[in-house]
Fold:
Amino acid sequence: MRSQIANLLHKLANVVGGISNQADYESRERLDKIFMDFSAEVETKYEATLKEQSRRSKLGLLDATMPPQWESQFYLPQGYRVLVASEDSQNHWRGGPPKHEGAICPICKKPLLLFWDIDCNELRSRGNSTEIFGDLDRLPLYYCCRRPEPTIYQVLSINKIQTIRPELVSDEESPFEDYPNEFERKPIKLEPIPRAIENLLIIAKYFDLPWLNSDECKLLSSYLKEEISSTCDIHLSQFGGAIDLTQGRDVLKCPNKTCSTHDMGSPFSDDTFNKMKELAVIDVDSGFEFKSNYSQIVFHICWKCSTIHADYRCS
Ligand SMILES: [Zn+2]
Ligand SMILES: [Zn+2]
Structure:
């Protein structure tokens, strides 16, 4: 029964923009209907309908096929656990000096820290959509630990990124301490998270840990190499899949002003085509060399222009 629920939640997340969009759409539609029924005159209703029809036909969305990369809540339906590897078998890396011209924080003007450096072709070759990451060969995951603002950038080529200046945050401090100027460069491997484990994580996340029986808790504890007694004990650095976000989900619009999603409209509301997708999370199990009074660094990606948005979550 529980695994059926988990499978259902996983499936829901993979249709029309994901669980939150679908719920958002349904509640808006219901509210709109109630509002219309109570407040509108017949002519007003008619005019509003015509206006909406014309808006949609101008956008060409009535018969539009949903872009596959937009449909899922997660950028990659398959999630991978990220582990430090003893040898370079997959050509994914962590750490090392910044490899891109432009990898400078627009706020503090210091070099960005390179966390993960992902081989996009290796992931395409594993049965993931060939559309992922546009025409990029590699996707670097950068973040500035010095400032509380998010780090935002678009990868322009194999050796150039363009940062986008975030809005300044004045009343917060960065939670990071004792981080080096660059992390030690080591190979990493992306290990597919088994569906049975993903189901347990989904149940623990959407319901609570008591929904798992003792055998399931043991299985999860042994997979995570950590004794799990509450959902706060779950730490899993992962790339792709249904990532577990400590402070819940965000609706982030693509911050790249030149991105074509801003002109696409949406079948549901005005902004869902430019909503970013959940891509990766670096959690305290990741083994990076700094004091962790943080919980997570979360990476979102625009499905269209591959702009990256990275921010931290406190525990
Ligand atoms: Zn900075
Ligand atoms: Zn975009």
Observations:
- Residues 59 and 263 are 8 Å apart (CA to CA).
- Helices lie at 2-13, 18-39, 42-59, 68-71, 120-124, 195-206, 214-224.
- Residues 71-193+236-313 form one domain.
